[in-house]
Amino acid sequence: MKIDIYETRYELGKAAGTATAQLIREAIKIHGTANIILATGTSQFETLNQLISENIEWSKVTMFHLDEYIDLTITHPASFRKYLLERFMSKVSPLKAAHLINGETDPQKECNRLGILISKHIIDVALVGIGENGHLAFNDPPADFEIEDPYIVVELDEQCKKQQLGEGWFKSIAEVPSQAISMSIKQIMKSKHIICSVPDSRKAIAIKNCFEQPVSNLHPASILQLHTNCMCYLDKDSATLLTGIVREKVEK
Q1: According to the CATH classification, is domain 2-154+180-251 in 3.40.50.300?
Q2: Whole-prediction pTM value?
Q3: pLDDT tens digits, residue range 129-177?
Q4: Which residue, 145, 140, 174, 142, is CA-closest to 159?
Q5: Cα dihedral across residues 135, 136, 137, 143: positive or negative
Q6: What one-character-per-residue DSSP string does 38-79 give?
Q7: What is the DSSP letter of 157?
Q8: Per-domain residue ranges for the chain?
Q9: To the nearest 5 percent, what fractions of the chain are helix, strand and coil?
Q10: Residue 219 and residue 217: Cα distance in Å, rounded?
Q11: Number of alpha helices (DSSP H) and beta strands (DSSP E) in the chain
C-alpha cells in the first residue's frame, strides 16, 4: 500500500481519477478489455468526475458495483444504483456491461447471481473509500476477513448509519436501512489494483486506525496495508492525525 496526501479533496479526486483511467487504458491495451469496481458516496464525487472526463474506450469496460442497501428503491436519493446511473453511466458512452446490485429482490439470490458473474472476471482496478468506522464497502467492524463469497448480506452498525444520515442521504436515522449487500473483503482484495479515495476530517480517526494500527477486522480497511498495488489518496484533513513512520514516509 502507498499513500499520497493532497491539499484539497479536488486535487485528491483529480489524481485518483487520473490514475484509475491510466490503469483502465493499460488493461484495455494488454487484454482488449478492462474490468472495474466502482464505489459510491461523497468520497467518490471528485474521483468519478475526473474519471468521466478521461479518454477511455468504455465499450470495452465491464463494471461491478461495490454495495447497495437492501429494500431501498432505486428512486430513493440514497440508492447507489441511482448514484451510479446518474453520476457515471449517463455521462460516459455505453459500457460493455454494468452489473448493478438490486437490493429490491431476494438478497441471497442476488448475492449468488453477482458472485457467479464476478467469478468469471479478473478485476483490473477497484475504486473504494473508507467509512468513518473504518469499513471497506459495507463490511462494518468486526468485518469477516475469511468469507470466500464475493457478495454477502451484512448488518449496518450504528456509526455507519449515522454517517449516511450525516452525509445527507436520509432524513432520519430510522430511515437508514439496517442491511445491505456488500462485496466481501476477500473479493475486493483480489483486485489487481485498488484506488482508495478518502477526503475530509471526519475520516481522520479511521485513517489513523486503519493505516497506523496492525491489520484488524476491528478496523476493516486496515487490510489494505497488505495489498501490494493499493494506492490511497488523502487530503490534508483526512490525513491530519497521521503521525510517526506513516507520516514521514508519505511526506518524503
Answers
A1: no
A2: 0.95
A3: 999 999 999 999 999 999 999 999 999 999 999 999 999 999 999 999 9
A4: 140
A5: negative
A6: E--SGGGHHHHHHHHTS---GGGEEEEE-EEETT--TTSTT-
A7: P
A8: 2-154+180-251
A9: 40, 20, 40
A10: 5
A11: 8, 10
